[in-house]
Amino acid sequence: GEDVEQSLFLSVREGDSSVINCTYTDSSSTYLYWYKQEPGAGLQLLTYIFSNMDMKQDQRLTVLLNKKDKHLSLRIADTQTGDSAIYFCAEKVIEGGSYIPTFGRGTSLIVHP
Amino acid sequence: GAGVSQSPSNKVTEKGKDVELRCDPISGHTALYWYRQSLGQGLEFLIYFQGNSAPDKSGLPSDRFSAERTGGSVSTLTIQRTQQEDSAVYLCASSLVGGNSKANYGYTFGSGTRLTVV
């Protein structure tokens, strides 16, 4: 596809792991970002990965990259109610791209007790 | 300032009126972006400023939309003759360097201006 795509909703139980998925458009030379948006707030950068990497871990967050399928995932371990937010995947293509970040529609993560 | 500041935080306007939305980026950030977030939609790119270069206006939805950036700092997004479909949250982001930099520079977003056209 030509867009950055994400599923719209994810519901998990507190303490479980959450996995948010994203497909992007260009596997050649790309930065891929995960942003979090809480109600009434702007977007907060959580983590990013470059397309020559397979995985990045940062505390409870793990980013996995499947370049063949152009698939990106964000795993949140031990999900807490404070993790409830909208999570945006974004792509910035470096080679032959516009260098303007393109965002998905966002995945609403709902964490229930 | 420490972050990207946008004003007003909320704006209600009557259909047909003009509105101005303001973005104050992080000091020293040369790249500035405007996005629009409509209900249930992702972030739609509107316009991008990089230093003194001509802005990339490719995302502006119509000629009712315009933006300027004075002195490489504050930016104003103007919507003329507002329509109900213009109702959205308008987000501004800045970055230390944009353009064709191959390095990664994070984007810092403001809290947005929620525009409601009645």
Number of helices of chain A: 0
Largest sheet of chain B: 6 strands, mixed
- Poorly predicted regions of chain A are none
Name the assembly state.
heterodimer
Structural class determined from secondary elements of chain B: mainly beta
Percent helix range of chain B: under 10%
- Rg result of chain A: 14 Å
- H/E element string of chain A? EEEEEEEEEEE
Shape, per Cα inertia axes of chain A: globular
Number of helices of chain B: 0
Provide the β-strand percentage band of chain A: over 45%
Number of strands of chain B: 10
Describe the structure.
The complex is a heterodimer of chains A (113) and B (118). In chain A, 0% of the residues lie in helices and 55% in strands. Chain A is mainly beta. In chain A, the strands form 2 sheets. In chain A, strands 2, 4, 5, 9, 10 and 11 form a 6-stranded mixed β-sheet that branches. Chain A has a 5-stranded antiparallel β-sheet with strand order 1-3-8-7-6, with no helix packed on it. In chain A, a hairpin with a 4-residue loop joins strand 7 and strand 8. Chain A starts with a strand and ends with a strand. The model of chain A has no long low-confidence stretch (mean pLDDT 90). Chain B has strands at residues 5-7, 10-13, 19-24, 31-37, 43-50, 65-69, 75-79, 88-95, 107-109, 113-117. In chain B, the strands form 2 sheets. In chain B, strands 2, 4, 5, 8, 9 and 10 form a 6-stranded mixed β-sheet that branches. Chain B has a 4-stranded antiparallel β-sheet with strand order 1-3-7-6, with no helix packed on it. The radius of gyration of chain B is 14 Å and the shape is globular. At the A-B interface, strand 4, strand 5 and strand 10 of A face strand 5 and strand 9 of B.
